[in-house]
Every structure is written in structure tokens, then in C-alpha cells.
Amino acid sequence: MKLLLTGGCGFIGSAVIRHIFRQTGHQIVNVDKMTYAASEEALEEAGPHGRHILVRADVADAEAMLQVFATYQPDAVMHLAAESHVDRSIDGPAAFITTNVVGTFTLLEAARAYWSALPSERRSAFRFHHVSTDEVFGALGADDQPFTENTAYDPRSPYSASKAASDHLVRAWGHTYGLPVIVSNTTNNYGPWQFPEKLIPLVTLNALEGKPLPVYGDGGHLRDWLFVDDHAEALVRVLERGEVGATYAIGARQPRSNLDVVRAICAHLDRRVPDPAGPRSRLIRFVADRPGHDFRYEIDPSRAVAALGWQAAHDFEAGLARTIDWYLDNRAWWESVRAARYAGQRLGSAA
Questions:
Q1: pLDDT score for 107
Q2: Is 72 a catalytic residue?
């Protein structure tokens, strides 16, 4: 299969490419705008290989998307390209509407034009897999059941609203035009190569350097944590085995409060590289909560597990240790990223 994958130099996209390269024979056409969070280095050995082609283009550029389909003639699309950081969406929502909403619309229209002209056999085999987030479902209370594929939408931030809009567009193109679409929604991902503004790498690097560890509110906000390699495997299975028109909720059943995550990072670093000044938990600082901060996200992945024969292989403790060790072993990468892309800017956000 020749797969057109958008956002392949991002955190999740690069994990998907590494998985495809190592576990399948598929070819990859990687369309990436190469924004601040993109990294060719994250492709690892897949980067320079003949089965991978990097096309630097914006999914919101209609002419460029039509050209990509015409030139590379893909068998399927996996759409990952998105602006994804909630705090950035609060500070500047316009980029999220452009990429997540207009970009998805533009890609859908290019895919529809291409798919409509395919020979019948290739047309019936074509798939458009849209990758989304559990944040479109809003927030759970402490005693609520986890999100499922049937949970009503209730987005609370500019980011989640833009992703909800893109989900609706994808399903509408499936219903109205017959485009063979599949949607998957996932929870918080973590692992190697994640950009340092996200919670786990931000806290890891700040703790390593003896800097304050800001935690929103009382740190009680709950998230379900999924190791990125497990998500990559699930996404490929959705593309290969998923039912047209279906939705798959992908999670790890590993909920942790933000404060528990921060403390776990501190404890692991204390074991690996003790700080003469004392336990790193001393660096935790509680700060004012951000606007509209959702209390809890958690997914019930039962349908995905049953339909795809998949389940998360990493528990949170093992995945976190592997992640922190990767950052310890790859200091040159994250130091260069921070120096090049955060010059004169604030770094990241609180948990």
C-alpha cells in the first residue's frame, strides 16, 4: 500500500512512520508543513529510505494537495496534521482554525476528486483515516464513565472545537459523497521525540535542570496516558482493518492525575540522576489554572481492542521510564530544539 500521511514529522506522525517502516512493507508519502514542532530527525532510519518521501506542503493549500494526489497516486490517507497544543490555541486560535478546519476540508476535497476518478477496484479499496482527540467530547466528572465512540461532542477549547469541526467534516464527506472515511479518537500520548512544550517532556527537562515545575490548580486534573508507539500500532490497524464509516476510541486505561505524573517523573529522575540539592519534588509549584481547563479525559477502548485485535503494550510506569531515559540519552536533540525554536519565547505550559 502507498499511504499519504499528513503531519509525518510531528510527534505521533513520526511514530506511525517508524512503525510502518519497521513492521510493514507499505510506502509512505509524508506531507508536512514543517512547523515549529516538526522534526525530520524523529523519522530515524525511515527518513532517508526509498519507501519514504517527504513533501513539504501545507494541507490548507488546495493546489498543493491536488498535486500531491496526482503525483503520488496513494491507496489511502492517514490525516494527522494538526495544531494540537491547548495553551497555544487559547493564545492564538486562528492557526488552529486554518490548519485543523480549513486544512481538513481542503484535504477532503482533494481526496474526493482523486478518489472519484479511480478505477473501481482501487476506488473500493481506498480509505481516508482521520486521526482526532478525546478532547472533542468535553470533560468527565470524577464518577462519569469513560468516553466511548458514542459519547456526545462537547468541545471546550479552541483546539478541541477545531478538532470537533474537522471530525464532523470527515463524517459529512463520508455520508454525503460516499468517501470511505474512518475516524479515530485518542487520549494523551507521550513518548520519545515529543516537543518540549508538552507536559511530560517539559517537566522532565525542567526537573533535570533544577527549574520550577508549574502545575495548574491543585494538580488533580486526570488524563488517560497512551504510549505513542502503542498508538501508532493502533492507527495502522485502524487503516488496514477498520470498517468504513466507523469510529474507534483508542486509549490505554492508564489514568493519572497531572500531579501524580509530575511526581512520577521526579522520582524516576531522582533514581537515574540524583540531584545533590535534594528530591526534585521540591521544585513543584502550583499556579493559577488556565481558562476552561477540562477536569478529566479517559477513553474506554473496548471496541478498538475487540475489532482490531489491539491493546496498549506499555503500562504507564514502563512507558514513562522509557520516555525519560530517551530524553536523558538525547540531550543534543532537545537542547537544539529549544535553542532554535524558543528563542525569546516562554517555554511550554503548566500541567
A1: 98
A2: no
